[in-house]
Amino acid sequence: MRSEEVKAILKPIYDAMDEAYEADRTETAFADLFHPDAVVVQKGVGSKYTRKDIIDGFKALTEEFGKVKMTRVNEHFCGSDDLLSASYDVKVDSPKKGRFVAKAFQVSRFFSEKPAFKKDLLLPLPSRKSSYRKLLKKFLYKETVAPTMKSEEVKAIISPIFEQAVKDYYAGNLEKAMNDTLHSNAVVVNKDVGAFYGKKAILENFAKMNEEFGQVKFEKVNDTYCGCECCLCTSFEFKVDSPKKGKVTAKVFQIYKKEDGKWKNYHEEFELHFK
């Protein structure tokens, strides 16, 4: 999709959020516009998973910063039929904290036939730690063209990364598989269970699962791919044969983003189905 097409889809969502914030109806807007499995990440600090935790984080933010005024600048949009992304800077004027800039990256997916925020990455504020901010005030668009990549192009990029991680796993080196594959700001969501942010927390979680399930054998099926210049995504199913849990199906969705010139697993969510 071209950037103006992505903007045309996302702008009404931003407008609705902006209007709700001005009318003090942000909680309602969050419930309507955030994906039910949304994750909000503050780089280097932590993550909030599910609408309730995100709303609670926003309330704490509002108490800390007061009702702010914002301007969005340096915007960039790209997307495919299944995935939309936006990155931008937010110039914030807070009655309690003064002026600062927040950098944001968002990925949106479709849910119940309407777009809803899937992920919101906010970089740390200069010289201060804070909570999460998702406020939109003014729209200043900087147009770029971001063509959709063909599925076979995306598959050709992701498959070697995935296959190497599988080889490392079967060789008994889970840590290498995680470290080589994961983005430094990766988040992994176990649907309806919780979210794990950062390589250390993700590795600890998968190490516990490895103890619980034993070294499994799995087959990847029903894989699909899409993407654009800023991020790639894939969804697939794992047919898992566990020596301790028996046969399990895992439904997986991943988003890859570049770091230091290499594509890394930036966001992953999975759901386990026991037979």
TrEMBL record:
Pfam families (alphabetical): DUF4440
Coiled-coil boundaries: none
UniProt xrefs under Gene3D superfamilies: 3.10.450.50
Residues in DUF4440 domain copies: 13-111, 171-264
Protein's recorded name: DUF4440 domain-containing protein
Organism: Cylicocyclus nassatus
Lineage: Eukaryota, Metazoa, Ecdysozoa, Nematoda, Chromadorea
